[in-house]
Design goal:
This protein is α+β, with helices and mostly antiparallel strands. The protein has helices at about 25-30, 85-95, 105-115, 120-130, 140-150; strands at about 1-10, 10-15, 50, 55-60, 70-75. About 35% of the residues are buried. The structure holds FE2/S2 (inorganic) cluster (FES) (2 copies). One FE2/S2 (inorganic) cluster (FES) binds near residues 38, 40 and 44.
Length: about 160
């Protein structure tokens, strides 16, 4: 066991886990941040997408040891206080989810797009979201939600 200090959603967290534990497991099992989903566990689906220093990354592939040095981790819980991030509002307006399992990963991936490209074309959205899998096939509604969010005047939160 080792103790790790993590900066998650702008709060400091101390966790005691085995070295090599996946960041996904620390978030879900040790900190109760279950908005980040466990699905494939091998980096294939994107359900576990979080941000490290504003870059979307798959938490199942990361070991907690590598993120104990002050890097900022953001999960879906840290996106907004009241669920009113432009993408969250657009997601509701477009009624994007079906079962919902993949959707926090989809949103975290989409945030990464709009932070660097606030007005993406449909082709850019498709390219950026490619590889975040939805078993329910909600892809068209996800694209619509991202297009809606891109039209909102509110800037995307960091
Ligand atoms: S659970 Fe991490 S990519 Fe599928
Ligand atoms: S909404 Fe069911 S897996 Fe995407």
């Amino acid at each position: 066991m080792a103790t790790f200090q993590l900066d998650i959603n702008n709060s400091k967290h101390k966790v005691e886990v085995n070295e090599g534990t996946s960041l996904l497991w620390v978030l879900r099992e040790h900190l109760g941040l279950t908005g980040t989903k466990y699905s494939c566990g091998i980096g294939q689906c994107g359900a576990c997408m979080v941000h490290i220093d504003n870059q979307p990354v798959r938490a199942c592939l990361l070991q907690v040891d590598n993120y104990a040095d002050g890097q900022k981790i953001k999960t879906i819980e840290g996106l907004s206080q009241n669920g009113d991030h432009p993408l969250q509002k657009a997601w509701i307006e477009a009624q994007a989810p079906q079962c919902g399992y993949c959707q926090s990963g989809q949103i975290m991936q989409a945030v990464g797009l709009l932070e660097t490209n606030p007005n993406p074309t449909r082709e850019e959205i498709k390219a950026h979201m490619n590889g975040i899998l939805c078993r329910c096939g909600t892809y068209l509604r996800i694209i619509k939600a991202i297009e809606l969010a891109a039209k909102t005047p509110t800037s995307i939160e960091k």
